[in-house]
Amino acid sequence: KVDSEAIKAIDGVMGLVEDAEYLEVVLGPGVVNKVIVEFSKLTGVAAGDASEDDVVSAAKDNKAAQKAKYENKPVQRFLKKIANIFVPLLPGIISAGLINGIINVINFSTGKAYANEWWFAAIWTMGWALFAYLPVLAGENAAKEFGDSRVLGAMAGALSIANAGMPLLASKTVDGVATRLVHLPFSLPTVAFKEGAFIVASSDLFNAAAGGMIGAIICAIFFAFLEKNLHKVMPSVLDTFLTPLCTVIIGVIGSVLILQPAGAWLTQAIFFVLQFFYDKLGVFGAYLLGSTFLPLVSVGLHQALTPIHVMLNNPEGPTQGINYLLPLLMMAGGGQVGAGLAILFKTKNKRVKKYLTESIPVGMLGIGEPLMYAVTLPLGKPFITACLGSGIGSVIAYLFHLGTVSQGVSGLFGLLIVQPGNQVFYLLAMLLAYAAGFALTWFFGVDEDRINDVFGE
């Protein structure tokens, strides 16, 4: 029997990854080099044969160590589930966002000259359809993550789609005036965030779109909770029929009266926080967002921001489909590339130079994990200077009011999703993030003794 706690308590052990079939002790790169030497003495296997000495394996080991610190925490597990809801949807979100951005440019520049062309309308429909029905897909994936039948999750998500055929939205038109026919049993508080202020009112009419993506996910999670618990108490002979029926009936009542309104409030609160950082804090808020994003990436929490990016890229949302947050965050990769370049030019350590020559090019293309997990994070100081340098690029992105029409790519590939016409400004912001990360790391982040201690001389 393995004493996991005793192993974790050993000095130099960064984490423990346990699986049904194996147990992996995660060590830092400086420690693992020393351990390899001792194991080579015990086994007779040459140290060079015991480990794959490349940036991929180093990054993999350090990533496992970093995430082992947090993976068993409830908040981390919950946010990972939220991220998993959207990861399968990213291909559609990216393509639909790009389509909507291109369509908007063409419509604006041509005065909608192609709007009635069938092929143009067909492509436009694809961009519209994804965001129109995204709550259904998100609800389905939420059900999968939280243990519900996927179709019931999709039904929960459908509550967030405003469709004229929805019975809850039934209306009649008299003398050109539409009157809603279905009223809730009591008025519910409603909120809207417009022009920097909350507008609070009340209404007894159901608003399908109010909860948005957040409401769809909350309702789907509630459906999952209901179904799992009903399975426990329902007699086996009735389980197949009554459990899904009761889940839907109880779930829809709770969703319409409580969860959808709660989702609406939470959605508006998110917009308030973003507006506060962007408009009220200005360049300071931009710097804060850009300089604190890499720590989120290091533990995988950045993926929990995906639903926020989806909301911002929704053409029907308050920003009309333009995401002004993402360009600020994408500068984090630029600061890290600059830090890597500073180490590359200043250090004499051959191993870290090898890691850097392999990881910097892909980092420039927006894949920063090898550089972060293999070099900057283990060294410590370069990770901090990379974060500080990233904030400079974010300030420039803020000053140019950069926005994206989609998500899913970063680095130089971010040029593909930046609002058309702003590519030069995006490139300038990224280059300044490189420069700031380079300068700060060159003067404050390169410690040759630390590099040799971590990577060996």
H-E order: HEEHHHHHHHEEEEHHHHHHHHHHH
Main sheet: strands, sense, barrel: 2 strands, antiparallel
**What is the general shape?**
globular
* Strand runs, count: 6
When the domains are counted, the total is 3
Structural class: mainly alpha
Approximately what portion of the residues adopt beta-strand conformation?
A: 5-15%
Terminal residue distance: 38 Å
What is the alpha-carbon Rg in Å? 26 Å
How many DSSP helices?
19
Range of helix content: 55-70%
Oligomer: single chain
Q: Strand order across the biggest sheet?
A: 1-2
Identify low-pLDDT runs: none
Q: Provide the residue-averaged pLDDT.
A: 84
Subcellular location: Cell membrane
Membrane topology: Multi-pass membrane protein
Domain PTS EIIC type-1: 80-457
Transmembrane segments: 82-106, 118-139, 205-225, 237-256, 285-304, 324-344, 356-375, 395-418, 425-445
Tell me about this structure.
Helix 9 runs antiparallel to helix 10 (236-280), helix 10 packs across helix 11 and helix 14 (326-346) crosses helix 18 (423-444). The chain has 3 domains: 4-51, no CATH class; 52-84 and 281-457, no CATH class; 116-271, no CATH class. The chain is mostly helical and 457 residues long. The longest helix has 45 residues, at 236-280. It is 65% helix and 7% strand. It has 19 helices and 6 strands. The chain has helices at residues 4-8, 29-43, 47-50, 55-68, 74-86, 90-110, 118-146, 150-158, 212-233, 236-280, 282-291, 293-298, 306-312, 326-346, 350-364, 369-379, 381-399, 423-444, 448-455; strands spanning 13-18, 23-27, 171-174, 177-180, 188-194, 197-203.
